[in-house]
Amino acid sequence: MKQLALFPVGLEHFLLLGSALLALGVYCVLTRRNAVGILVGVELILNSANVNFVAFAHYVTGSIGGHVAALFIIVLAAAEAAIALAIVLSIYQSFSTIDATHADTMRG
Amino acid sequence: MPLSDLVFYLFAAMVVVGAAGAAISQNLVYAAFLLLAALFGVAAIFAWLSADYVAITQTIVYVGGILVLFLFAVMLTNRITDARHSNPAVGKRPAALVSLGLFGVLAYVSIETPWKHFDVPAGGETTHLLGQALLSTYVLPFEVLSVLLLAALVGAVVMSRKETPKP
After folding, report:
1. Does A68 touch chain B (CB under 8 A)?
2. Could you say which DSSP state residue A102 is in?
């Protein structure tokens, strides 16, 4: 296994940061029962992808494409958060809880 | 160790600590505010990578928009009295196993791969380039995304509105 030097900071450091964010987001999504808590995890995952996009744009391609992808992801995250929180409010009105395991009316 | 690397490690620590707190905290309000720290840290990382426009957008959209939305959802759906354990966790051990495995694989790949490095010039401001790219190369996804955003807004309004009985 190659040794990773602490400095100078390079592409690998940003990829490691993105991996850590992704792992924490996955952990959050898997363990939370509160629907808003799950959404927090999804935001972490989307941000990890953004870190990777911008890091590759800076270190590898040198073009603007990575920035454009990051911008699109931010917009998608905003749309996703608005829709998901509307669903959460709607679930709260019907079940008076936002525990994701309790909304199981359609389970056979 | 040059100063810029120290700055990177400072903000990377802020991101990781904030994200870990948001993923672990039992209190949903704390989780939301720790998410704020993580998102600010990511914005700083973008600025470090000379992506100034993306960093500003991250700050405005995430910190100004999405996080306020989160806090609204928390306040509208949780009674203040049971805020202490508002964010229960189940299945911690298998989830920790899965995410640690994922991190291990990704870290191995990102360290082992011989990435091609180019001598990218330290970036100037990117707003001009981004504007040109958005309205030339990426104009179709840009327009599709704006329609999607409109649909999402209308959908969110329709879904979160209380059912009013017809007169």
Report:
1. yes
2. T
